[in-house]
Design a protein that fits this description.
323 residues; five-stranded mixed β-sheet; 17 strands; 9 helices
Length: 323
């Protein structure tokens, strides 16, 4: 949910507890494992891997990995830090990981590592890049929250609850799934009416197409199907034209595609408009980091308790040991 929320600490915890039990493959969206965050200039934990692990990282970072390496494959995937290389760790040590930034490349890297004998591939996520949580890429997800999101404890808890709710949006009925997938095969946006007829709009994306979508609504429409990212601007347009969308259902691909805060979502639900997904996400845990590098922190037990009261999944403070 924010930089310095404890994401890499969680990754290291998983790696430590899987030691000796599985062959692990590791990659990242963006860069992880460096000593200092290049954006916030704050200290970051290094990533420690066990001998036998596979790592997919950018060519320019190979020299920053203090393991003995066996190069297994070049992928042809380019990044600002060079081509993504897959290597095997021939010794224990620290690695600097920078993986692909888009899902199709992540899938390629994942499959290559599985092909080289990995039992489990871990993808270290990134702020504002939740696409890897989609089930085309991964089978399960952990979300990290923490005091770095805001010094206001109530706001952190509320937005954490909202993010969990978005990632756990309910799946639509099988009948709707089939119709919605037909729409997405033909385009990106469309309507389903009360007789289960479909109407596809000639629009490549919902971004900057708010007016066209609103103008296309008919009285017998009941479901709006949206492919790709769903912006705050579109949802605000729907709220502004609430009489047209009363008792509507909006179907999106999965919970990583919606970009609205809790206030906007509340307004949408009051119309009422329901949000449903084609593909559900397997969200395992919410990890919480009560300490921020920006000079404020929360009391761990209180933070965990408030999160548990608000959120219907397991909440874990990795460092503090609160479960």
């Amino acid at each position: 949910m924010e930089k310095n929320s404890g994401k890499t600490t969680t990754l290291n915890y998983i790696l430590k507890n899987l030691k000796g039990t599985k062959v692990i493959g590791l990659t990242s969206i963006g860069r992880d494992g460096e000593d200092c965050d290049r954006v916030t200039n704050t200290h970051k934990p290094k990533i420690y891997v066990e001998k036998g692990s596979l790592i997919a990282t950018a060519k320019n970072l190979l020299c920053k990995c203090d393991i003995t390496k066996e190069i297994l494959a070049t992928t042809g995937i380019s990044t600002p830090m060079g081509e993504i290389i897959i290597m095997r760790a021939l010794s224990n040590g620290f690695v600097d990981v920078a993986g692909p930034s888009y899902n199709s490349a992540l899938i390629k890297v994942r499959d290559l590592m599985l092909g080289f004998g990995c039992d489990l591939v871990l993808i270290d996520g990134a702020l504002s890049r939740k696409g890897s949580a989609g089930n085309l890429v991964s089978e399960a997800t952990i979300l990290a929250t923490g005091a770095s999101f805001s010094p206001d404890l109530t706001r952190v808890v509320e937005e954490s609850r909202h993010n969990v709710e978005m990632l756990q949006l309910p799946k639509c009925s099988e009948e709707i799934v089939d119709l919605a997938r037909q729409i997405l095969k033909m385009g990106k946006i469309g309507f389903i009416d009360t007789q289960s007829n479909i109407e596809v709009l000639d629009l490549l994306t919902s971004l900057n197409s708010h007016r066209e979508i609103v103008d296309a609504v008919k009285p017998n429409h009941k479901i709006l199907v949206l492919g790709g990212a769903v912006s705050k601007g579109l949802i605000e347009s729907i709220i502004q034209n609430r009489e047209l969308f009363k008792n509507f259902t909006i179907v999106i691909e999965d919970g990583t595609k919606i970009f609205i805060d809790s206030n906007i979502y509340h307004k949408l639900s009051m119309i009422p408009v329901k949000l449903e997904v084609l593909d559900s996400i397997n969200l395992l845990y919410l990890t919480c980091n009560p300490t921020s590098p920006y000079g404020h922190s929360f009391e761990s037990e209180k933070f965990c308790k408030l999160l548990k009261t608000s959120i219907d999944i397991d909440v874990v403070d990795i460092v503090g040991g609160k479960l």
